[in-house]
Amino acid sequence: MAKKPRKKETQTNPAQNAHILGAGEVVKQPVTETIETNFMPYAMSVILSRAIPEIDGFKPSHRKILYTMYKMGLLSGARSKSANIVGRTMQLNPHGDASIYETMVLLSRGYEKLLHPFVDSKGNFGKAYSRDMMWAASRYTEAKLEGIAHELFRDIDKDTVDFADNYDSTMKEPTLLPVRFPSILVNLNTGIAVGMASSICSFNLAEICETTIALAKNPAHDVADTLLAPDFVGGGQVIFDAQTFAQIYETGRGSVRVRAKYTYDKEHNCIDIHQIPPTTTAEAIIDKIVERVKAGAIREISDIRDETDKSGLKITIDLKRGTDADKLMQRLFKQTTLEDTFACNFNVLIKGTPRVLGVRQILLEWIDFRSECVRRRVRHDLGKNKEKLHLLEGLAKILLDIDEAIRVIRQTEEEDEVIPNLMIAFGIDQPQAEFVAEIRLRHLNRSYILKRTSEIDQLKKEIADATDILGNDARVKKIMTDDLKEIAAAYGKPRRSEVVYAHEVAEEYTAPQAEDYPVQLFFTRDGYFKKITPASLRMNDQQKCKEGDKVVLSIPAGNAWDLLFFTNKCQVYKASASDFDDSKASVLGDYIPARLEMEEGETAVWMLATKDYTGYVLFAFSNGKLAKIDLSAYVTKTNRKKLVKAYSDKAEFAAALYLTEDCDCVITSSSDRCIVFHTGAIAPKSKKESQGMAIMTMRRAQHIESLHPLADGEFKVPARYRTKNFPAAGVLLSDDDRKEQQLRFFF
């Protein structure tokens, strides 16, 4: 069925756009077509040409820099200015010098991100473990290739990989590098594409080589037998969990727990941290610890500072007298990024297709890739040897009569006829004749010719051997495994990350429970809070308040109860009553916005205390709506101290009420109208930010004024204020009830 032509809606201005074809034309285009024609090509470009590494372990940007340095001769000799390298790389990568230099920094030894860096750097290249230590400009630093980079380019000129044109078709660059070891799993590699990402942790080179050799010999080999755990350049402790690692090895997905390593200096009573997880920085750790200290969650630390210098990372934590360093570290592991997880997502481009593979599958794919590189190298050498043998066989025929060859050349009148005459005289083809004709006069002697033709037997053996290799997969894998053994011996290093089994890790330290004893909690209209014991309250029950302020809540509770402070920005701050010192009636108390470090302009408007998060909260809004929220909605599994969207922001907060069970309540408006209702008639809402239901109709300039439980004797005839349907306008207070309310308020 033929598609109907798309209709066009046009708005044109002939005076302005007459000279531009199609200018000013507005075309109606479906969103799906826009995404397909405009966005999808961009997304595919990011996935295939930018963010996801290929089987050789490199993204295109990495490969372009390394290949440029290789062509500059930086595998050996002196270093070159980084600015020079960056400028030369722009012949292959037109995305700007800043991004090229940053990529080169990430590959360098000085940055300390890779287990086996490929760039030998000199100068300030920053540090991966520091957020603030930035690298110097490219004009101040120098670089060349590391020794291990030899294994990236060996035999690259022997047709081991394909080459493609650069962006302007003036140069050729490799589509992959013929790496002799699985660099894809040896160095950490992360990238974010469009709709997908890649996050590959690093493994020990010797272990990876051993595992690859075992898989080459037996594809059913259990990877876990030879590959212990990830190994990170920053060290730390990898928490070993057999089930998690088995999942990563098979599926390529999972999380690796990494802990910082520390030592306790008894003489100075401080903790020194020298190794941290790869997913954090020294500054982030210090900021988090300072935050926990200010919040009162950690009281054992007197000072913390960054003492990182040229010798490496060092974070020093000074302890207060009598502090148990090990127990404190267990708390810090729980509350800061001193223990963090590395999320594995082994997304790799395999022949142009992104695939999430486990370690086994990646190594098997690498074995296929490297085997093909070996075959292409052998095939290239075989062709060269056959060509050389063919030429030497022609040269051998000269042995029959050197004088004849000289005579043929001497008696030939035209230069163009030398090659045909030699072909006729000795029965050789054109390449052989050209090879003979190019021999220098000084080499036209029997000794030279015998020396050259003696290579024929050796070449025949090499050709036969190469032919056998190409027809024998076992020999191809033998070559590959021999290369891996050589590389492991030359570049293998001891593990940097210590492996600690999960059952050996000290259990997370749980802070001691606060002593629970009866207290009376007071909360004022301006946001002041006091916690007073009953004994102190009996001595003086007149609460001191700031001028113009008054107590709006007085709650009997326990010292270990949780406190929830709701703010004018629809947020709730959580604390424990034990976080506050016992106070007296004669003091103002703690100013909650300052104590809980609320945002600028944020104030506390209401408070509740709970022991077990049972019951529910009624939120009344100025527009007459009422929301019933189960208190369990504010329970958090972690130690979060602030929750956003604690209640609806669609209308101004008017009042709130905490109840443990349904009962009769009274809601009053600014026009002295009341409604008595039972909270069981209000349906609970699952979302904290719900507006609830309309319970009282509001006229212009009117608002909800109060919400409280119905007290005995509050109204002479409570049924007068009840209604069958919601929303309702409410009933005006009778004269008797108004007098009762005034007396109640006065006393």
Task: Describe the overall structure.
With about 750 residues, the chain is an alpha+beta fold. It folds into 5 domains: about 1-40, no CATH class; about 50-180, Topoisomerase II, domain 5, CATH 3.90.199; about 260-335, Gyrase A, domain 2; about 380-485, Topoisomerase, domain 3 (Orthogonal Bundle), CATH 1.10.268.10; about 520-745, Neuraminidase (6 Propeller), CATH 2.120.10.90. It is about 30% helix and about 20% strand. It is built from 21 helices and 33 strands. Strands 14-9-8-17 form a 4-stranded mixed sheet. A 4-stranded antiparallel sheet has the order 10-11-13-12, covered by helices on one side. A 4-stranded antiparallel sheet has the order 20-18-19-23. Strand 18 (about 520-525) and strand 19 (about 530) form a beta hairpin. Helix 4 packs across helix 5 (about 95-105) and helix 12 packs across helix 15. It starts with 13 loop residues before the first helix and ends with a helix. About 30% of the residues are buried.
Instruction: Assign the CATH topology of the largest domain.
Output: Neuraminidase
Q: Can you tell me the CATH superfamily of the largest domain?
A: DNA gyrase/topoisomerase IV, subunit A, C-terminal
CATH class of the largest domain: Mainly Beta
Strand arrangement within the widest β-sheet reads 14-9-8-17
What class do helices, strands and sheet pairing give?
alpha+beta
Oligomerization status of the protein chains: single chain
Characterize the biggest β-sheet: 4 strands, mixed
Question: What percent of residues adopt helix (DSSP H or I)?
Answer: 25-40%
Total beta-strand segments: 33
The general outline is elongated
Residue fraction in strands: 15-25%
Mean pLDDT: 88
N/C terminus separation: 86 Å
Per CATH, the architecture of the largest domain is: 6 Propeller
Number of helices: 21
In total, the number of domains comes to 5
